[in-house]
Structures are given as C-alpha cells and as structure tokens.
C-alpha cells in the first residue's frame, strides 16, 4: 500500500558515513581558516584560478568559465553549460559575511592603565555571548603611504588573543537582574589590546606603548585606523562535537557552510546542461546593502559583460533572469532540545534530517518573505526525491515568535525563480554555531543535483 503520511528520516541512515565524515574534514579546514568575507573571496579566487577559471574583468578573458570579484568582498563563479545562457542559469547564492564585532574608526583608548579598543558589532548577535571569549583580530588597514595591510592575529597556537572582560559574579548582583540584551551593553564590547606601559614624567601610558608596538610591527599610525576594516571573531578552529563526531562547531557556519558546499558542488561537477553561477555575497547580515551586497547591480553588470565578451549581442540580461532558477542557500534553525517552545515541531527542521527547503521566510504574517510558488517547490521536491537526497521542509520558528529573511527576495525581484534551501543549525549567530555533518553533506549533494538539473515549472 502507498505510504500516505509525510515523514522525514535521519540522514545518517541513508548517507554513506565514510563520505560524510571525509567531506566534514575538508569543510573543517575551510571554516577554520577563512573567517571574513575578504578571506573567503581570496580562497575561492585562488581555487578557481587553479581550476582554470578566468577573471571576467582580466585582459586574458576571451569567453567561457569565469570568476568575478566585487570589491574583494563578494565573488561569482560561473561554469558554462551545454545550452546557451539565454535558456537561463542555475544559480546558488550564499553569503560569506557572518555576525562579528567590528572596530570603530577611532578605536584605541586607555583606562586604568589598560588599553582597549572601541567596537560596533555587526549583524544580529547576543552581546553577552561575546565576553570572556578568546578573540582574533582580522582585517585590512589602508596605511598613510597607500599600502594595503592585511593580517590576522590570534589564530596561530602561540598568537596572543584579545578578550572582552565581564563582571565577576560577586559584584554582578545588579547586572544579572538586567534583561539579557543589556547584560553586556553595546559600548561595553571593548576588548583588551595591551597592559604594558611606557613611562612618562609623572605617569605611565599604555596606549602609547601599543601605538609604538603597532608602528614597529605593521607601520600603523593612529590615523590609519580610520581607513581600516578590522574585525573581531572567535579565535581558533572548528571542532567535532559529540563522542560520535556527528556534528561540527565553528564560527560562521552561517553562511559559509552554504558557500563552501555550493562552490564544491560547482567545481566537482562535469559540464552541466544549463550554465551554473555561484554568487558568494557580502553584507547579508546587515540587509544586503552596499556595493558588495545582493541589492547591488553587480549581477547585472557581470551578465552584461559575459554577453558582450561572448558575442551574445541579441540576448538581454532580462532574458537570462526570467529563464533562471536560484537556490538561496542559507541556513535555517533546527529544533533545539533545550528550547523546543519557540518551534512548531511539525513544520520545523530537525537536526540531521538533511537539507531544509523553506518556502517562505519573513515574520508576522510572512512579512518580507519572497515566498516560492507551489510549482517551484514541486520542481525542487521532485528533483531531490529523484536523487535520494535527504531533505525536509522547514519554517523558522512558531508564528509570531520572531523570524528572519535571506537573500532570496533580492534575486526573486529580478524575475529569477528563487527558493531557500540550506542546512539547519543549532545556536545560529552564536560565536560557535553547530552543524550536523550529515546535513553538511546533504547540502553538497543537493546543490550539485540542482546545478546539474534542467528544472521547468508545471503550468
Ligand atoms: Mn544567513
Ligand atoms: Mn545570519
């Protein structure tokens, strides 16, 4: 008799455990090493170059496969299919920025003979999670002489780290009564950068000591901070979680888990029927704004450029968009056994049950959702079932309990058929997020299946 009920299965029961574990190892290396959008861009660019992709904006680009970099913060990778681009693209879009703590433009100060850095957090964080945590400083500084300095301190095992202090419980009676959003205030997210002073006539000066250290080591003067992008992220690499090593905890799964699996899916594939485009975007965590965010017209510029260079003068950018499909590859939330109350279980993603298809995001009456059509959900459902890919339907939390958005709507507004598809995490946006290795591998398989598909929408 036909199975009438919808039920999902734990993906560990159907996937090849060896393949899952091996893929997890390569992902751990990536996620441990590349923590900012600029670092991911340089990784992807190097890998793409090694594989023979050409810079779309380079002098030696004459057509075919390419990568295209925007502001060093977002990158596209394109693989030409057997069909011409006028029949549309299969696009996987992910974001490579993650919540973090940025330095202010004039950050350095000293108080009680301790030198600290003023910060302004980036994206949606629970501020209390970031205190008393070893932090690494990553970023770029445009020096006075025009030189661009790039560095990371705190990642090598013998590197020093920065750290934000917190009040001892003995003196924290008032603090602990505050709402969690105020336990650590935004202006109290300042990490310690130094404690050894230089001696002056009648006092000591730690700030001056740090300035001369920065100058000796990097050639930095204080004004250089103004033209810098320096960022604090959790120090150290990814770790396996559990005695069975079934999960990975790391900084920035959201959304580098999708960026990595999408890129691997594209580069591990043979020549697809339709052309593939991977878009790895910046600024999603602050609304996809700016020149490197998904609301910018870099996508239009890239397609125009491709059409021109490849002699496709009779094809318009809109011809391409309206024939294209996109997966908005972003993470969802898995039901947390410690906090089941915010989830409506029947429609929430389960950890380890494969990649999550999310028809709509948004909040409070689906506000701000892209909302993929039933026809598109049908096409994706049929594709994943046909390839035995572990997948599940998911919604972000109970009605009216909160919500969130993704890049999906910015592609959809261009006429591209778009749907959210990504793995579900525990502790999303925490300094260390948790992902299932089975869901990681299922995501890779899902993006690969999509990039090699020729979807049509049933009328
Ligand atoms: Mn995300
Ligand atoms: Mn996010």
Overview of this structure, please?
This protein is α/β, with parallel strands linked by helices and 459 residues long. It has two domains: 11-98 and 251-451, Zn peptidases (Aminopeptidase), CATH 3.40.630; 100-234, Aminopeptidase i, Domain 2. The protein contains ten helices and 24 strands. Strands 1-2-3-15-4-16-22-18-20 form a nine-stranded mixed sheet. Helix 1 (17-33) crosses helix 10 and helix 5 (253-267) packs across helix 10. The longest helix has 17 residues, at 17-33. The radius of gyration is 23 Å and the shape is globular. The model has no long low-confidence stretch (mean pLDDT 96). Bound molecules: manganese (II) ion (MN) (2 copies). One manganese (II) ion binds at residues 254, 285, 429.
Salient structural properties:
binds manganese (II) ion, 24 strands, alpha/beta, 2 domains, globular, Aminopeptidase i, Domain 2, Aminopeptidase, nine-stranded mixed β-sheet, 459 residues
Per-chain topology:
Blueprint (H helix, E strand, L loop, with lengths): L16 H17 L3 H14 L3 E2 L10 E5 L3 E6 L9 E7 L4 E12 L2 E9 L12 E8 L5 E6 L26 H4 L8 E3 L3 E2 L4 E2 H13 L9 E7 L4 E3 L5 E4 L2 H15 L7 E7 L16 H12 L7 H6 L2 E4 L3 E2 L21 E4 L3 E2 L10 H13 L4 E3 L9 E2 L3 H5 L4 E6 L1 E2 L7 E4 H15 L8
Parallel strand pairs: 1-2, 4-15, 4-16, 16-22, 17-23, 18-20
Antiparallel strand pairs: 2-3, 3-15, 5-6, 5-12, 6-9, 7-8, 7-12, 10-11, 13-14, 14-24, 18-22, 19-21
The structure holds manganese (II) ion (2 copies).
């Amino acid at each position: 008799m036909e199975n009438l009920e919808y039920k999902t299965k734990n993906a560990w029961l159907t996937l090849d455990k060896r393949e899952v574990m091996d893929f997890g190892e390569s992902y751990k290396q990536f996620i441990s090493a590349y923590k900012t959008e600029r670092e991911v861009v340089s990784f992807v660019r190097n890998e793409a170059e090694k594989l023979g992709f050409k810079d779309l904006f380079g002098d030696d680009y004459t057509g075919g496969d390419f990568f295209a970099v925007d502001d060093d913060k977002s990158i596209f990778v394109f693989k030409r299919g057997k069909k011409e681009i006028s029949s549309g693209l299969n696009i996987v879009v992910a974001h490579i920025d993650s919540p973090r703590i940025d330095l202010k433009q004039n950050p350095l100060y000293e108080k009680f003979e301790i030198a600290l850095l003023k910060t302004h957090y980036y994206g949606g964080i629970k501020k209390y999670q970031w205190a008393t945590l070893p932090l690494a400083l990553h970023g770029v500084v445009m020096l006075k002489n025009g030189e661009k300095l790039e560095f990371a301190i705190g990642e090598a095992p013998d590197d020093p780290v920065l750290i934000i202090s917190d009040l001892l419980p003995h003196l924290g009676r008032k603090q602990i009564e505050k709402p969690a959003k105020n336990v650590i205030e935004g202006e109290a997210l300042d990490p310690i950068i130094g404690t050894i002073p230089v001696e002056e006539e009648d006092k000591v000066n730690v700030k001056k000591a740090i300035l001369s250290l920065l100058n000796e080591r990097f050639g930095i003067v204080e004004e250089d901070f103004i033209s810098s992008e320096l960022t604090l992220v959790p120090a150290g690499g990814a770790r396996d979680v559990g005695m069975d090593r079934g999960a990975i905890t790391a900084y920035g799964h959201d959304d580098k888990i999708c960026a990595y699996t999408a890129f691997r899916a594209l580069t591990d594939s043979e020549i697809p029927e339709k052309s593939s485009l991977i878009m790895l975007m910046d600024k999603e965590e602050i609304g996809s704004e700016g020149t490197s965010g998904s609301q910018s017209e870099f996508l239009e510029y890239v397609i125009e450029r491709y059409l021109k260079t490849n002699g496709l003068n009779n094809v318009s950018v809109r011809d391409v968009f309206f024939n294209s499909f996109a997966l908005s590859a972003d993470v969802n939330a898995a039901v947390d056994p410690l906090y089941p109350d915010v989830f409506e279980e029947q429609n929430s993603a389960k950890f380890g049950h494969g990649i999550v298809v999310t028809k709509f995001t948004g909040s409070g009456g689906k506000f701000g959702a892209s909302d993929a059509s039933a026809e598109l959900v049908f096409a994706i459902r049929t594709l994943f079932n046909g390839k035995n890919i572990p997948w599940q339907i998911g919604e972000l939390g109970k009605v009216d309990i909160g919500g969130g958005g993704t890049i999906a709507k910015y592609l959809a507004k261009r006429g591209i058929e778009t749907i959210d598809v990504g793995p579900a995490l525990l502790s999303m946006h925490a300094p260390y997020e948790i992902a299932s290795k089975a869901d990681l591998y299922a995501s890779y398989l899902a993006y690969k299946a999509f990039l090699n598909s020729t979807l049509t929408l049933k009328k």
